[in-house]
Amino acid sequence: MSTVQPLSRFMIALALAAGAWIFALSAPAVADDAYEAQAETSCDAGSLRGSAVRQGESVQVSVSSDAGSPRGEVEVALGSFERRMQLRDGSASFTIPRSLEPGRYDFSLRFFPAAGSDFKPCNAGVDGVNVRAGGDVDENVEQVDDTVVGGDNAAGGLGNTGGFSLWILLVALAVVGVGVALVVRGRRLT
What we know:
transmembrane helix, 2 helices, 24% helix, 190 residues, transmembrane, membrane, three-stranded antiparallel sheet
């Protein structure tokens, strides 16, 4: 005759089933993980924010990152003027074309990282850049709106990067608690 009581056999079976269930749920998911580590970048419209520019003036834009100097290309657009150029040491410069009529234009800057680099693309914009005719810039002109629009730099966490889910740990804690209660109850009965 067995020395194990029927309640104890039930407890052992319940503990084994709960353990197998928790182990199965906590095993890592098998999936094609296309995640690649990429460093955040920040695009800066430079002197186009908050001031007027004139035809023929050189403007410098930059792309920065805490992970080093980004490599790649930037694309700038101001009204009908568009240009794509290589980024050098995190910055690039272009000249406001004399063919661009004086007036207010929206400016956009887009960064395209070099193939194989660890940097994320970014973009920035300035609404209502005031382009003046060639010559000196009038310092008494109305300041333009320097609101940066767009951008791929929204802060956000990385999803499901590993570790146990909280609910699995809570279920395991509940199963252990029930097991302890049943063991205590079983010992009182004997």
